[in-house]
Amino acid sequence: MPASLYFDSASLRDGRFEAGGIERYPFELINRSHLRECSVFGQGRLLPVLAIDPCNRVEEQVEALSEWEGCYFGFKLHTRATNCCASRLIGSPFIDLAARANIPIIIHTKPVPDFTHARHVVQVAKAHPEVRFSIAHAADFDRTIVAHVAALPNLFFDSSPFLSLCAEYRSQPLTERSQRLPIDFGDPNTGLQSLWRAAPDKLLWGSDEPWTAICSADGTALSSFSYEDEYSLVMSLPEDCRSRIGWSNPLRFLLGDNALEVSIAAAISTKLERLAKLIGSGSRNAD
Ligand SMILES: [Zn+2]
């Protein structure tokens, strides 16, 4: 999910997040285009997840999201792109909306800057057991955070983008790995299985950023993996691991604990049909 167009681009270049972009409120245009693209190009295979910003113009966002309720499958908070800590979700109207619609919230996390740290998501998940949350990017492989994921029924984490994470973490000094899970970053197949064993019912494949390329500031490619590379990795896993992180865990995250007992196809197609109707009706907010 790209950054909001709500912020003034000149201020962003200086590291400030000031209103003045082309959106009246965060993700006003981006969410609309995301819904339209999923409906027009998705052919029933793309499930829209809409971006939120709990730090700015919340009322306007909630009004638009309420109008589209039943047409999307979750919310995404990119803490870095919005300059907003996950803890701002506590008690926010986004929580009420997610609980009412039975949809989860994916949250981007990194150990730095501190306001994007995964411990804030743990805090939110404890405060709101009625909503499912996912910590992105393997929770930095942090033992303490992953223990919370395993213990809290409504908290998940994802492995995205695993091959790039292996490349990134392989190059870190050993001293920085002491608080991390014992993952073999030199062998992604074994490494992903180790990560899964830390919380077998909670790891999701993909989710926040299924694949990516990482460049240094001077444009040098540090890693470059395709969707096919990541897909091949997950398909090379033993059956139990593959089916949990690629199927049953994501279904429970998306649809709730009874996901495997209801008609999954019906639950998904009902929303996609609603979305197609919304786009077809030319709703002002979905244009
Ligand atoms: Zn992310």
TrEMBL record:
It comes from the Bacteria. Gene3D superfamilies: Metal-dependent hydrolases. It holds the Pfam family Amidohydro_2. InterPro entries: Amidohydro-rel (IPR006680), Metal_Hydrolase (IPR032466). Residues 92-254 form the Amidohydrolase-related domain. This is Amidohydrolase family protein. It comes from Tropicibacter oceani.
